[in-house]
Amino acid sequence: MADHSDMRLVICVIDEGSFSAAARKLGQTPAAVGKRVRALEQRLGIDLIVRSTRKMALTEAGQRYVEDAREIVAQIDALEEDLRDDASTLRGTVRLTAPTAYGQRFVLPAVTDFMSRHPTLEVQLSFTDKVIDLVGDGVDLAIRTGVAADSSLIGRRIGPYRRQICASPDYLGRHEAPMSPAELTGHRCLKLPRETVLSDWLLNDGVRQGTRLGAGLTCNSLDALAFACVNGQGIASIPDFIATQPLNEGQLVPLLADHTKSEPDEDIMLLRPANTVTPHRVHALGDFLFSRLRQ
Length: 295
Fold this sequence. Notes:
By secondary structure, this protein is an alpha/beta fold. Helix content is about 40%, strand content about 20%. A hairpin with a 4-residue loop joins strand 1 and strand 2. Helix 1 crosses helix 2. The longest helix is centred in the first third of the chain and has 25 residues. The mean pLDDT is about 85.
């Protein structure tokens, strides 16, 4: 019968680099560690580790064993931790990532509300507009926009969003409003880094030929671009979760409506890794975020 303590032992030997180093970490003698590894190899009928006076290395079978053992041990740890949790007391850490502008507006208030209900839970929240490897970086949950199909992730659709092409009344008082996407090249355009072609603004000029945008401020913050737009610095493409309020208050004016798609641009998704046992605390926070953000 398989014993996951043997799996942990072999993983420790490989991670520490030697039997003696693993023995020190585990509080055992090198002889005892070596005896357990040999007993495991005899039970399996294969060699896992090739030993020499100078170094050791995994056999091909040993590499497969360690790879699978890491996943099994991680699942056992998650399952045992999940069983220790209950609906009223959530403990441990949840690692969550979200886009900066959307995350600061909507995810952070939801997370702090959830944590006030579960004071023994720790949430590590990071804001980034980069696509990161959830499994490789040890992230439990992610909020993302415009997600491509990925079999390693399980996703739930929070809702759609669209981007608004707009400018301030002050800017339009000094510059004639563009009537077609091609006219944007003659305007001050406020852009995200590398967002220099028309298709990035999701406009349609009939053939989507990628008319270039005019020179203007380039910044990696949507909030900063929205601020500059409201203050008359140019034309910007701003997500509706940022643009709605200044549009309603008359601080911004929508442009090029005839060249904007009628359907939403992209979806906002809640994602988690598919190939791991998900602890109850992760499920609980995910369900809370999904319900809150859909509102």
